[in-house]
Amino acid sequence: MVWLPILLPVVGAASVALLRRHRSWLGPVAVASLVGGLVASMTAAVSGPVAAWSWGGGIELVLSVEGPGRVMVVLVPLVAVPVVGFAAASLRHDPALARLLGLMTGFVAAMELLVVAADFLTLLIGWELVGVASWALIGHDWRDPARPMSAKEAFVTTRFGDMGLYVAAGAALAAAGSFRFSDLARASDPQWLSMVAAGVVLAAAAKSAQLPFSPWLFSAMAGPTPVSALLHSATMVAAGAYALIRLQPILSAVGWFGPVVVGLGLVTSLAGGVVAFAQIDFKRALAGSTSAQYGLMLVATGAGFTAAGMGQLTAHAFFKALLFLGAGIALHTAGTLDLGSLRLGSTLPRVAVLFAVGAASLAAVPPLGGAFTKETVLAAAFEAGTWVGAGTAVAGLLSALYASRLQLLGYGRGPVITVATPPHRVEMGALGLLAGLGIALGALWLPGGEEFVAEVGAGALAVGEPWELGVSVASIAVAFGVVWLLWRRDRLVGWAVPEAVRLVLADWWGIPTVARALVVDPALRLSSGLARGDRSVIDAVVGGVAVGADRFSHRLRRTVESAVDRLVHLIGGGTLRTADLSGRVDDGGVDGAVEGIAGGIGFAGEQSRRPQTGMTHHYYALLTVGAVFAVIVAAVWR
């Protein structure tokens, strides 16, 4: 059962690839596989299955649906179903639709593997598959050279952070002799556990776009809008926060872990909030809000209240997917993402209403579920410290500012535009489903909601004070008032600050510029210098050695050829002389001896015929002489 949430989307991706010529089947097959995966995930969340596969050498890949994984394993396909359905409808004329839907479905499978991983090795496999799939999806429109370049920037940035997870896996093996999460509790050396925590924090910060890695989300906006919706809500960007939530009970034994995670999340939530409020690109503004919202999850997790972080992750998945899909419809309708050129509320009133549900959830307006989960984060922040709580309250104020700004600029009332192709009913259904899920989370405000979140999230919740809710509501009212005032004065797009200042703030406080000046450009200059040095020094040395070797080989060849020729001639001449001598010896010696023997035999034959006269007394005489000779020989031999 633990494998089905992974395998069913894989089967769906393969089926989409096989049916690529039957375009009308692509969307239904992809969505059906995800629905099947959702059913399997819900079953697994209830039963909590565990599976292990031996890789050899004492290494096992372990899968387990437990703790916050019970929520996450359901959340991923639950969000993916409407998003993939939206993609199939909105991009139905895309010639590469099969590749897109296949990759998105496989992306879900990779995320599910990451979610159910119970050891660092399995986590790494899922982690890397998610990264590769996101690279391919961001660069989907590869014929535009800027898209693959943006995909590479996002991939390289997250890959840098991924190195931390490799370090964590190695340290876990050294500390516990195993990659399993559960075995880390018996680690005897705190230094190894501290190294594990450092690696996980680095990897999570890069994956969830926390400072200083946040700008990669702008590069990721090069992908199709449904890809951005899936990427930001329940898959790749959520992976970092989920890893911290899953491992917090173990890593909290490291003294610095909690404060570092809280500080990282709080700084990012404040900086990202300003970025989202300053941006005039629809998708980039949403990307800034993504970093800020995941920062709030890190605040709750670092404070030790993982159920609050998991609750915020769940609510965020619903309303962020909804908001990105709304941005996609705006782009399709107006042909631009410039917030100063939209105001589509009068043109698309139904979309405006559904988008408003997501914006209100982002602003944490009660009684929506996003408001409940944000209050649990605020309570956790005040438990961590007064200043942490105050900073989180300011981050909440910024959330209300940029959420209401997005609603007015994106789907506020404006001139009616003639729409050639209105949103498809499947697109509207996807928005409606996500908005309904966000509204349904409002049931958490009912009695027993906190206990339910704590039980399902497998963690603790801080007990909030009534005045904290009052602070939140007051900050929302202030934010709405400021945005309305700026709207009325027609300054909501560019603010009332110098344009140069706004541009710096909108571009992640100038971090990309600083990174280019301090890291990218020096690295490029260094690489160019090394390339020139390679050509002028190393290549010259190699070329010189090659020329010298060639000359030496020519000289050696001439010398060797001369010596060998002389030796061959010498051997050949000696051989000929030896043959000539042997010929003369053969003619004069062997032939002479043979002829002499033959002559002797002939002579003996002639002489042997002479006694044969036919006279008997001659024969008797010969016999007598022979007998005497035999007697003498016998006597002498004795």
Describe the structure concisely.
The chain is built from 22 helices and two strands. It is an all-alpha fold and 638 residues long.
Structure description:
The chain is mostly helical. The protein has a domain at 256-506. The protein is built from 22 helices and two strands. The chain has a two-stranded antiparallel sheet. A hairpin with a 2-residue loop joins strand 1 and strand 2. The protein is elongated and about 165 Å long.
Defining key terms:
76% helix; two-stranded antiparallel ribbon; mainly alpha; 638 residues; 2 strands
Number of strands: 2
Strand content: under 5%
Overall form: elongated
Distance between the termini: 112 Å
* Helix content, binned percent: over 70%
> How would you classify the helix and strand content by structural class?
mainly alpha
Biggest β-sheet description: 2 strands, antiparallel
- Rounded mean pLDDT score: 89
What is the number of helices?
A: 22
Strands, helices and their partners?
Blueprint: H1 4-18, H2 23-47, E1 50-56, E2 59-64, H3 69-90, H4 97-116, H5 120-138, H6 146-176, H7 190-207, H8 216-220, H9 225-233, H10 236-251, H11 257-278, H12 282-302, H13 306-334, H14 349-362, H15 369-384, H16 386-411, H17 425-440, H18 449-456, H19 466-488, H20 499-506, H21 511-609, H22 616-637
Antiparallel strand pairs: 1-2
Helix pairs in contact: 1-2, 1-4, 2-3, 2-4, 3-4, 3-9, 3-13, 3-17, 4-5, 5-6, 6-7, 7-10, 9-13, 10-12, 10-13, 11-12, 11-16, 11-20, 12-13, 12-15, 12-16, 13-14, 13-15, 13-17, 14-16, 14-17, 15-16, 16-19
